[in-house]
Write a structure and sequence with these properties.
It is built from 11 helices and 14 strands. It is α/β, with parallel strands linked by helices. The structure holds phosphoenolpyruvate and manganese (II) ion.
Length: 338
């Protein structure tokens, strides 16, 4: 339930109204001072609260019932776009943010070379997996803590905050120390114990859509993190499983405008895991920007043929550089920066 307050209500009046509401109705209050108006979101068992009682409150302009099960992630709760600050990189604002790097960190030299290349092409974040959730137990599983260390060294050297995937709640302390954005992969989107733990940290979380999950399920997973107190969530569409076999997954481009309408959280597209083929990354990345995505996550490898994971979908640094130039031209057309 949302209370839209009357114009001109001050911060201290909003705060005292919040205290009254939580004491009287046993709900959590979420005040948002927006560009247009101040609203208070009520979370909890709001069904029994008589709406007329709220409508009669002197500071309240109107009461809006939120039917959707996601509250904190709902745009009705937070009409302005959320901007997630990743060590100074603003995600969700005018600038389209690109996270680039290898699927997996393979060695100190590999991540150093790729970080240098993607930084010079204009990427803002460095991605690299250290704990790899692989379909086969015989495939490369990642360098684990050693991989995070190499990632952090490259991050400091080239000034790129890092994104890396967590696979288990037991890794949280390590990730809080080494990583700037904690990625939750498609396979863990509904690992609710992990999501609850991530609600207790303040690091930004890049939450990827599961390949068999609906948009509303993605938003409910975001709600798990946000209800724990961590509002720094970035959503990422990375392709879903359909009957189509020409691509690794089917990129649901409509997820971008649908999510932008339903939520205030920033939306990324990962064309690499959607396509599964390097030749398809450029058109899908262009489509993502045109559809209004706030950022992209793209796999780049200095030697894709020998990559220990996801080589076929990885761009060489040269192809990535040319893609970034094309994306910058497109972004300018739609009034965004790169
Ligand atoms: C990844 O980003 O390396 C990854 C495993 O992605 P996803 O979880 O989308 O498959
Ligand atoms: Mn990958």
């Amino acid at each position: 339930m949302i209370l839209v307050l009357k114009h001109g209500i001050q911060k201290d009046e909003t705060e005292s109204l919040c205290s009254v509401l939580s004491a009287k109705y046993g709900v959590q209050t979420n005040p948002i001072i927006g560009s247009e108006s101040t609203i208070i979101g009520l979370v909890g068992d709001t069904n029994l609260i008589p709406v007329s009682e709220l409508e009669n409150l002197v500071d309240v302009e109107r009461v809006v019932k939120v039917q959707e099960p996601y509250k904190r992630a709902n745009r009705k709760f937070h009409p302005d776009n959320t901007i997630v600050d990743v060590c100074g990189v603003k995600v969700g604002g005018d600038k389209v943010v690109v996270a680039a790097g290898p699927c997996a960190v393979e060695s100190a030299q590999q991540i150093d070379a790729i970080a240098e290349a993607v930084a010079s092409s204009g990427a803002s974040l460095l991605r690299g997996g250290a704990f790899k959730p692989r379909t086969s137990p015989y495939s490369f599983q990642g360098l684990k803590a050693e991989g995070l260390l190499y990632l952090m060294k490259a991050s400091k050297k080239y000034g790129l905050p890092v994104v890396s995937e967590i696979t288990n709640p037991s890794q949280i302390d390590l990730f809080v120390d080494y990583v700037d954005v904690i990625q939750v992969g498609a396979r863990n989107m509904q690992n609710f114990e992990l999501l609850k733990e991530l609600g207790h940290v303040r690091k930004p979380v890049l939450l990827k859509r599961g390949f068999s999950n609906s948009i509303d399920e993605l938003l409910m997973s975001a709600e798990y993190i946000m209800s724990g107190g961590n509002q720094n969530v970035i959503l990422c569409e990375r392709g879903i499983r359909t009957f189509e076999t020409s691509t690794r997954n089917t990129l649901d481009i409509s997820a971008v405008p649908v999510l932008k309408a339903k939520t205030h959280l920033p939306v990324f597209i990962d064309p690499s895991h959607a396509a599964g083929q390097a030749s398809l990354i450029e058109p899908l990345a262009m489509a993502a920007i045109a559809a209004g995505a706030d950022g992209l996550e793209i796999e780049v490898h200095n030697n894709p043929k020998c990559a220990l994971s996801d080589g076929p979908q990885s761009l060489t640094p040269e192809v990535f550089d040319s893609l970034m130039k094309k994306l910058a031209q497109l972004a300018a057309v739609i009034g965004r920066e790169m």
